[in-house]
């Protein structure tokens, strides 16, 4: 049976986090199709991975036989994350927008799993693996909106996940999540509600489609 690697990075619980709530819809639909499958859940807010260090970085380009004790220890943790990433049949990533980009905890995870010559570059060891990103945001940064130029979540993740790692990328974007809480955005609440409903529907549909594809 297939293995789903589920990465959450929101600071907030599902009751207060659009990315976690939509990801949970995906995960439940996936598990309905794969009751005997495996779900590996990494909550980067509760259990952040180490930010990459000089030892972890340089060890990735050196012969393991030449590693210093510091390099060996740092790279062992990095290698565990890389192997977990490579062995997944599908990825689900919750990526809320914080200050126009992704949470630093998610960036730390990416810095660990991106290894030129293995996961990135000419080899791309996980190439073709489907990844679904729940890219939630408090406002709207869609084309044609006033803040279109401030969108650094999808643009960055497309470059890293699709171009750099060769993954089969799809975004689900619940937006205007601050509308119910910000009086200045009150008129946007219906648009928020439509976006939320569509995101949950898309998440369930994407999970079922991937489950069928991987079971074929």
TrEMBL record:
SUPFAM superfamilies, per database record: Flavoproteins
Coiled-coil residue windows? none
What reaction does this enzyme carry out catalytically? 2 a quinone + NADH + H(+) = 2 a 1,4-benzosemiquinone + NAD(+); N,N-dimethyl-1,4-phenylenediamine + anthranilate + 2 NAD(+) = 2-(4-dimethylaminophenyl)diazenylbenzoate + 2 NADH + 2 H(+)
Has keyword Flavoprotein? Answer: yes
Q: Give the enzyme's EC designation.
A: 1.6.5.-, 1.7.1.17
Assembly and interaction partners:
Homodimer.
Q: Which HAMAP family match?
A: Azoreductase_type1 (MF_01216)
Family under the similarity heading:
Belongs to the azoreductase type 1 family.
> Main role?
Also exhibits azoreductase activity. Catalyzes the reductive cleavage of the azo bond in aromatic azo compounds to the corresponding amines. Quinone reductase that provides resistance to thiol-specific stress caused by electrophilic quinones.
| The name this protein goes by in its record | FMN dependent NADH:quinone oxidoreductase
Give the encoding gene's name.
azoR
